[in-house]
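so my prof wants the structure for this chain in the tokens format not the other one, which i didnt know existed until like an hour ago. anyway here's the sequence
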Amino acid sequence: MKLIRLAVAAAILALAPAVAEAQARFAVAVDVGAAAPLSTSAQRVVSFAPAASTSSGDANVPLLSDRRNDIGFRFAATAIISSLEVRYDFARLGWRGARVRCRGEEPATQAPDGEIEDADVAYDCSVPNEVVRYAGEDETALQMHALDVALRFYMRRRPAVTSGRDLTRLYALVGPGLVLTRAEDPELGPRLRPGVRLSLGGGAEVPVDRRVALTFGVRYMPAIVAGAASTSARANRAVAADRGVVAALFDVSHTVTVAAGVRVDFR
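here's what i got, hopefully its the right format
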């Protein structure tokens, strides 16, 4: 769990300067942009094979597939105290198909709550990794809500003496966060999954007034979220797919965001 230990250490580092600096500078910022997934959002998710890819005898055959997301929209609101930022971040990413990893060797049943009961199903994971699309993918999406805390490291630059205006402020940042994903799965309905993530990135603030600046930023955010099913079900599927214990409990995702916005200073 190196990512979790790193997130805790970053949180302690981020809170120290804010406590020590009594006359902290306060600002708020909002920005919008795009979120691009660098990996699948959920691994080895069970679902029934799409009707378009099955014969009449394979209608209830379960698949284990990695769900993939497309580039999506994101919005963030940030409170900044000196070099410490507290940020609410929202992203919505549509689906762009799933890559099949394993196929059930016999049919499965579906419980009244929507869960697929595949504990006794053997999986063949030597099948071709084809990409399939499920009905309803165009109308559903993965929603991500996050609360991040990060420490900004500003590059110290002297003001432009001749113009009397501040130069562009450049910074890097690092910090942990809590994330809650809501997957509107076209097959199984909504699924809530909590997790943690780390923010690494940087940006620029271009002053247009004494208290107002335009902002531009890029962030890389790896995240660990809880699995999309019960622990026992995930463990069975992990064994079938020859994956470890950690993979049975958690999914790891990687996302890059690019955004532009405005910052307003109050002190």
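also thought this was worth mentioning. The chain has one domain: 2-8+17-38+68-98+134-265.
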